[in-house]
Amino acid sequence: MGTTRVSRHLAAPRSQVYAALIDPEAVARWKVPAGMTCVVHDFDAREGGEFRISLTYRSPERQGKTDAHTDSYRGRFVTLVPDERVVEVDAFETDDPALAGEMTITITLTEADGGTGLVALHEGLPSGVSLADNETGWRESLDRLAALVERA
Q1: How far apart (Å, rounded) are the C-alpha atoms in residues 137 and 33?
Q2: Phi, psi of 17, deg, nearest 5
Q3: Activator of Hsp90 ATPase homologue 1/2-like C-terminal domain: from which residue to which, for each copy (predicted)?
Q4: For position 98, which CATH number holds?
C-alpha cells in the first residue's frame, strides 16, 4: 500500500474551494487527470453519503483499471468539515487483486497567503497503482481545480 501527498496554493477563499470539492458538477470538471474525461454517476455529499465516478482515457492506447479504457470507483464520504476537510474512502471497481482495496483521500484546507492552502493525502494505494502516476494525476487535477476556483 502506498501514499502520495500533494500541496497546492489556490488564489481563492476556502469556502469557494470547499464548495468545489463537494459539488458533483465541479468534481466532474476538476477531479480528472489530463487525457481523461470524468462522469459522476452518483454523488451524495454528506457524511456517510456515497458516490460513483468513472474516468475514461481519451487515448485508445491507455488501459483502464475497470475495463478497456475506464477507471471506475465507488466511495463514501467519511468526514466533511465545511471549509476545512474532506475525507473519503474509495475503491476501484476491478477484479485485479493488485488494484483492489480501499484507499483514503484526505483533503485539508487552510488559510494561506490571501487564499487557500490545500493538501491532498492519498493513502492505501494498491500495489498496482504507480505512486508517480498517482501524484502526477493529482497535480493535474489540482491545476484544473485552480483554474475553476481562481477564475470565479
Answers
A1: 5
A2: -65, -45
A3: 12-150
A4: 3.30.530.20
Cβ-based neighbours of 97, under 8 Å, separated by 6 or more = none
- The x, y and z cell numbers of residue 67, run together, are 475495463
Query: Which amino acid would we find at residue 74?
Result: R
Range(s) of the domain holding residue 17: 2-150
Residue 83 near residue 15, CB atoms below 8 Å: yes
- Per residue in 42-100, pLDDT (tens digit) is 999 999 999 999 999 887 677 667 777 788 999 999 999 999 999 999 999 999 999 99
Distance, CA of 91 to CA of 105 (rounded, Å): 11
Give the long-range contacts of residues 40-49, CB within 8 A, separation 24 or more. 44/77, 45/77, 45/80, 46/77, 46/80, 47/77, 47/78, 47/79, 47/80, 48/76, 48/77, 49/76, 49/77
